[in-house]
Amino acid sequence: MTPAQTPPLSRRERQIMDVIYASGRATAAEVMEALPDPPTYSAVRALLRVLLEKGHLRFEHDGPRYVYLPTVPRNTARQSALRQVLRTFFDGSASEAVAALLDMSASKMTDEELDQLQRLIDQAKVEGR
């Protein structure tokens, strides 16, 4: 299954994926330890099993333990999730999404961040021609 075909994640599943992406690999106990307001160990194992079934994770044996690893690089997963957000909330319009982000965070953005955005816009104009 490609990232574009993988089923969407629940809030808790995203939290688990964040933990695994941050470390590159993790056991159920390590995931549980890193989660905010963690559910029971059995619930973490069940969620990991769901993520395996959805194609987001794979596992390796480390003695008696399962070690979970992401199936796609974080950047690929991020792009897939962003495409889904664009389709769902912004009718596929990147400019509408950027406008919403700027509206939410413009007062919090530094001059350096705004300059970086301008450079990215300028680069996109050049590459789009």
Give a quick summary of the entry:
Helices cover 63% and strands 9% of the residues.
Kindly describe this structure.
The chain is mainly α and 129 residues long. The chain has 2 domains: 3-70, Arc Repressor Mutant, subunit A, CATH 1.10.10.10; 93-129. It is 63% helix and 9% strand. The chain has helices at 11-23, 28-34, 41-54, 74-90, 94-105, 111-128; strands at residues 57-62, 65-70. The chain has a two-stranded antiparallel ribbon. A hairpin with a 2-residue loop joins strand 1 and strand 2. The longest helix has 18 residues, at 111-128. The protein is elongated, with a radius of gyration of 18 Å. It starts with 10 loop residues before the first helix and ends with a helix.
What are the main properties of this structure?
elongated, 129 residues, mainly alpha, Arc Repressor Mutant, subunit A, 6 helices
Main sheet, how many strands, which sense, barrel?
2 strands, antiparallel
Strand content: 5-15%
In the predicted model, the low-confidence regions spanning at least 5 consecutive residues are: none
- CATH architecture designation of the largest domain: Orthogonal Bundle
Helix content: 55-70%
Q: Whole-number average pLDDT?
A: 88
Number of helices: 6
Backbone shape: elongated
By DSSP, the count of extended strands is 2
Structural class: mainly alpha
Cα end-to-end separation: 33 Å
The fourth-level CATH homologous superfamily of the largest domain is: Winged helix-like DNA-binding domain superfamily/Winged helix DNA-binding domain
- What string gives the helices and strands in order? HHHEEHHH
Give the CATH level 1 class of the largest domain: Mainly Alpha
The side-by-side strand order for the widest beta sheet comes to 1-2
* Gyration radius over CA: 18 Å
Number of domain units: 2
